[in-house]
Amino acid sequence: MSQPTTHFFKRKRIVLQIMTLAVVVGSSLLLKTHASASADSVNAAPAPQVTVAQARTFQVDDRQVFTGRLQAVDTIDVRPRVSGYVDEVLFKEGTRVHKGDVLFRIDPRPYRAEVDRLTAELAQAQAEAVQARSDSDRGKRLLMQSAISREASEQLDTAASTSHSKALATGAQLDAAQLNLSFTDVRAPIDGKVSYAMITAGNLVTPDAVLTRVVSVDPIYGYFDVDEQSYLTLQHFRDDGHSVPEVAMALADEHDFTHVGHLDFVDNQLDSGSGTIRLRAVFPNAQGAYTPGLYAQIRLQESHPVPRILLRDTAVGTDLGDQFVYVVGPDSKIIYRKVSTGPVFAGLRVVESGIQPGERVVVDGLQHVQPGMVVLPITVSMDAQLNDRQKAELASVTRPVAGSGTTALAAR
């Protein structure tokens, strides 16, 4: 190959190498510029907003809420004590009655006739007894004069005793007849509220018939079942020398536990099937506001107040069996914090450990943040999202504690 040709190819190879180097350098500069622009874009993005609330310390006493049922202290089926036809129904169904009020009247005429008959028989028997006693006394005098035999005198004594016994028996029969006559007025056995008339006028009744039912009104029982752990906690509370724990009740349409009573009965054994034991509370009911059979929420105190932190229940997350919260640090960065929790009261969760009073805790949207993220915290009240019932329940038991800047609550 000639020298000019060789020189031409060398120059061409050099030009290609220079062009390749220029392309590589240009691409590198372009990528670096794009990366720098992306980083500037990321750094310029605003921090996401998160809702936070300040952790507060409260004086909290543990209380459990159980579902119970109201029951009358006395429930009595009203039955007649004598047979007969019902003449009258003398009460207004569903109203309050007093002990001794006449509820039903059974036809008294057969029983009055029996009383009249026995009254006459008693008068006859008493007259015969008087005559027999007089004959006996005269016989004794004649015996002393030897005018009659001893046998005749003894017969007169026997006749007098027989007549006296007959008069006593007739008197007892008359008492029974008068009692049966009084039973024709079927009376209320207690003060209370009467049901409807199960038997109406004109029907024949016997002593096994139920005419109506009367239940006592004031006071009223509330029966409820508690689990074994709650029962043991209650026992420790009472064994420590504390007074009988407070019991409060709310009906189905009520938001707060305003009806206060006291515990008066604990059953003697647990139900092995359900693992529960039955308790009974007593509530005053002078106005008759509570009806036997109603369901009620019954709240039972289990301890005296101790300082605890309360958080909104939505602030607590679960991670592989552990519970945690997200705390916003002084630099507005998210901090993962493992916590130990207790019971819930009115939508607020008791936190036993893991956070300190005053720390800002994320209370909404945990799934949108992660540890280390810089956020813009928006502070709200811890009870901002409670519903009306929860707020009413919270207010019903919140009270100032002497010598403390905290608030007392009852935990559920």
From TrEMBL:
GO terms for molecular function: transmembrane transporter activity. Residues 219-302 form the Multidrug resistance protein MdtA-like beta-barrel domain. The lineage of its organism: Bacteria, Pseudomonadati, Pseudomonadota, Betaproteobacteria, Burkholderiales. Residues 314-367 form the Multidrug resistance protein MdtA-like C-terminal permuted SH3 domain. InterPro entries: MdtA-like_b-barrel (IPR058626), MdtA-like_BSH (IPR058625), MdtA-like_C (IPR058627), MdtA-like_HH (IPR058624), RND_pump_MFP (IPR006143). This is Membrane fusion protein, multidrug efflux system. GO terms for cellular component: cell envelope; plasma membrane. Residues 75-207 form the Multidrug resistance protein MdtA-like barrel-sandwich hybrid domain. One of its GO terms (biological process) is response to antibiotic. Belongs to the membrane fusion protein (MFP) (TC 8.A.1) family.
